[in-house]
């Protein structure tokens, strides 16, 4: 049974009819909600356009993050400096995300996304030409703002036009293609090298290329009514199981990618084998999302989020007990990586089934804000855990985060059952 206790405060967003298939050749707009009624072909093309665009953006991001870290290290900057500079992008997401639905309602989703792509291209190239390092902080902030636009609106786009019966599958495909884009970025950097203008130009060109699918989508892009929400707090309260899933995912994914190799070293793995643990974590992310998405189309998504939280808790808590069995430990890392990312996929699908129109755009903005907060807080939390409970601080801290999330998800289910 779904929990609709907070729907009234969101103007009945959950009761808007789902998108229907029409037989004419042009999309029609619902004047009350701003939703488009698309044919199956139009919907498919629009979904492909949004996924292709954000995956190319993911490749640029996957290239740029290590590139900028290498550049700062080569200029003698400390790890603390590099970390603070990188964090500016996350701060920008928290700042800009609440404003994005309002801008998209007034200017159009496609127009604002093109602005975000232009901003990403310009700032990526500017890192090469602007030498004063203090300028890299406002540059990172603007770069993060551009990314916020693209992720908030692309996820709104995909969620808004996904049919309910296949929403989880589509979110799984989205998460998989985005992960592949992230993986392609470092591979491209390895080919181009980290010196000279070439990698910066490549990152900028990828943003330009990502504009092509958005432009080709034409009028199939979703639209927002003029009334949009800037205050995201009601959306955090209305669907905490979904929004907090993004926070836990952001914390554990970012912290895990940072500290899993260090955990490997601490328990006796070689440097090469420890690095491969990160690949296993990422591979689990890529391969498990579509099956989890398909499963979410067949079960109550809130209950599935609870199951993922409990399995995440058990997987993390069990790691210290399987480290002496390498194949079992590596399998645990692989499966655990998929479960962690499943929170994001199922959380997004849950939002799409709860909200429509401007409410969905604002809910997606709240989702991205929570992910960014997790991304900013995860590394210091997991790092502190490793210092306190060495060598098993990483799985212990991750288990605590998953456990707290499971309590919230379980409480929401119990609360809805008593109303």
UniProtKB/TrEMBL annotation:
Gene3D superfamilies: MFS general substrate transporter like domains. Keywords: Membrane, Transmembrane, Transmembrane helix. GO terms for cellular component: plasma membrane. The keyword Transmembrane applies. One of its GO terms (molecular function) is transmembrane transporter activity. Residues 234-419 form the Major facilitator superfamily (MFS) profile domain. The keyword Transmembrane helix applies. The chain crosses the membrane at residues 45-72, 78-100, 112-130, 136-157, 169-191, 197-218, 230-250, 262-283, 304-321, 333-351, 363-382, 394-414. InterPro entries: MFS, MFS_dom, MFS_trans_sf, MFS_YcaD-like. This is MFS transporter. It comes from Agaricicola taiwanensis.
């Amino acid at each position: 049974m779904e929990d609709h206790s907070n729907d009234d405060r969101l103007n009945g967003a959950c009761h808007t009819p789902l998108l229907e298939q029409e037989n004419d050749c042009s999309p029609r707009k619902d004047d009350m909600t701003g939703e488009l009624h698309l044919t199956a072909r139009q919907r498919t093309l629009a979904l492909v356009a949004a996924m292709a665009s954000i995956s190319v953006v993911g490749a640029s991001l996957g290239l740029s993050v290590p590139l900028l870290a290498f550049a700062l290290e080569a200029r003698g900057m400390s790890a603390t400096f590099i970390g603070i500079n990188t964090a500016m992008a996350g701060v920008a997401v928290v700042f800009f995300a609440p404003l994005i639905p309002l801008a998209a309602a007034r200017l159009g989703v496609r127009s604002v996304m093109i602005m975000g792509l232009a901003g990403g291209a310009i700032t990526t190239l500017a890192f090469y030409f602007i030498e004063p390092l203090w300028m890299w902080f406002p540059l990172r902030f603007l770069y993060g703002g551009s990314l916020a636009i693209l992720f908030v609106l692309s996820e709104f786009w995909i969620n808004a036009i996904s049919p309910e019966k296949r929403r989880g599958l589509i979110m799984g495909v989205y998460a998989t293609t985005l992960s592949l884009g992230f993986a392609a970025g470092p591979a491209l950097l390895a080919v181009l090298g980290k010196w000279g203008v070439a990698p910066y130009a490549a990152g900028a060109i990828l943003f330009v290329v990502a504009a092509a699918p958005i432009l080709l989508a034409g009028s199939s892009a979703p639209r927002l009514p003029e009334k949009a929400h800037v205050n995201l707090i009601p959306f955090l309260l209305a669907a905490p199981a979904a929004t907090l899933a993004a926070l836990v995912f952001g914390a554990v994914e970012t912290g895990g990618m940072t500290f899993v190799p260090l955990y490997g070293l601490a328990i006796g793995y070689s440097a090469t084998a420890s690095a491969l643990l990160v690949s296993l974590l990422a591979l689990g992310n890529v391969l498990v999302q579509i099956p989890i998405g398909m499963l979410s189309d067949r079960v109550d998504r809130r209950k599935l989020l609870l199951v993922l939280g409990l399995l995440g808790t058990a997987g993390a808590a069990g790691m210290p007990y399987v480290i002496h069995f390498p194949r079992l430990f590596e399998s645990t890392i692989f499966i655990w990586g998929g479960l962690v990312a499943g929170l994001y996929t199922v959380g997004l699908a849950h939002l799409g089934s709860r909200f429509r129109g401007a409410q969905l755009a604002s809910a997606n903005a709240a989702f991205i804000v929570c992910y960014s907060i997790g991304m900013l807080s995860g590394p210091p939390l997991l790092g502190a855990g490793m210092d306190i409970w060495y060598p098993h601080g990483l799985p212990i801290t991750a288990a605590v985060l998953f456990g707290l999330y499971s309590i919230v998800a379980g409480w929401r289910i119990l609360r809805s059952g008593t109303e």
